[in-house]
């Protein structure tokens, strides 16, 4: 069971507290725009935004709770976070499934179990091939390349664009859907994620973060 069709676009509607578009009113509008534009699912952070978005769209929501006080493992790092995201109405719950040591928070196996116990699908955010295999072995329903380039181990080898090689490696090995996520900043790159074998592609910044989109244009102009 996947809840959304193969080959589709998942739009991540997230805005941190320092972003002028922070808050459920703006995120719900983003979600409606994404649905109108043809997105097949949404990725959403926090209970308020998830509930607001579930009220205005029909799309399945991949919910997360970012807890930066649990850094470096901040994406839904506890079973309590899973309960909160489920309660808010998420259909699928994404969690950090990297091998990183956790000073706080729960073991990823416990987080995964809680997601399934609550009747939700588990979306494993990983940064390496080995983490992807381990997450699939553990019973995750999706494996996503979300954290490739964002962990201490992968920062040095971070690609400027998306990590297509990782998508290719995981897709040729796993039978569960592999989701391409992270730095798919153009429609062409998103298509290349599917060509690399991804089931679907998540795009965030370049659709729902006008401040970053503006910065990329300004930079383009400065570079002439
Ligand atoms: C690393 C991390 O925390 N990624 C987050 C996960 O929820 C989001 O900040 C990203 O926007 C999302 O993964 C989509 O990626 P991009 O914005 O590159 O299209």
From TrEMBL:
Its EC number is 5.1.3.9. It catalyses: an N-acyl-D-glucosamine 6-phosphate = an N-acyl-D-mannosamine 6-phosphate. Pathway: Amino-sugar metabolism; N-acetylneuraminate degradation; D-fructose 6-phosphate from N-acetylneuraminate: step 3/5. Pfam families: NanE. One of its GO terms (biological process) is N-acetylmannosamine catabolic process. InterPro entries: Aldolase_TIM, NanE, RibuloseP-bd_barrel. Signal peptide: none annotated. Keywords: Carbohydrate metabolism, Isomerase. One of its GO terms (molecular function) is N-acylglucosamine-6-phosphate 2-epimerase activity. It is an enzyme of class 5 (isomerase). One of its GO terms (cellular component) is cytosol. Belongs to the NanE family. PANTHER family: N-ACETYLMANNOSAMINE-6-PHOSPHATE 2-EPIMERASE-RELATED (PTHR36204). Converts N-acetylmannosamine-6-phosphate (ManNAc-6-P) to N-acetylglucosamine-6-phosphate (GlcNAc-6-P). This is Putative N-acetylmannosamine-6-phosphate 2-epimerase. It comes from Ketogulonicigenium robustum.
